[in-house]
Amino acid sequence: MEFYFLLFLAGLAGGLFSGLLGVGGGLVYILILPAAFIHIGIPVQEIAQYTVANSILGTFFAASFGTVNHIGNKEFYPKAILIISLSAIIASLLTLNFIVNTPFYSKEVFNIVVIILLVIMLLSTLRNAQRQKFFVERIRFIKRFFGFTGVSAGTVAALTGLGGGIIIIPFLSEGLRMEIRKAKTISLGVISITSLSMVLFNMFQQPMFPLDIPHTGYIVFQVSIPIIIGTLISATFGVKLSRRISVSTISYLFSTFVLIVILKKLFELI
Question: Which residues are in coiled coils (predicted)?
Fold first, then answer.
């Protein structure tokens, strides 16, 4: 019972961070999922694959509820979301098929990839936080730039299970000087669409090692359902909270949690 309660708490935290930061909740999920899968006997050779797949599932629900809330408040940008999502879907599915869901992508490789990407994003976010109050929004809907953003976000989402928001938000806020709240809204929309495609893909995959517990492809519902329930409870609250907190505070909160994840993954490697 304690095991499922911890997963539920992870869902609460993931949903809150998703609505608040626009990154989909994966930063929380990838902290707890590897330990959860070891606990229920998932072969260590496929911990990375199960972690990515189930983190993306939780991320889908977290981002979707945040997006619904934004739509209700007339904060929705379908053109940007669609363009970025199309390229993100292609990149994410190719990455899953040819890199992640292969024997090469071990837990150690997964941790190294997560650490490298998060260090880059941490430095970028801290630099961005210092400049937020001087930003002047001058957005141009450049299809080529959005396409590049989508490819980068989709690749990172598939490699890490983080959903792609850690790429989308810095790219839009720095590359287009987009106000971070708008970038966060677009990020949640893109994550909703992209993560759904990855969830469906992973449900029809054949794991390399047989399991004695119920599963659908790489999706293990006894682990993911408590996370989803917690996520659904807190995601809307996170969106509401983000409207009451300054942009720089959101950036520093994001940076703090990224640092926690980096330290945790370094500890796992050691």
Answer: none
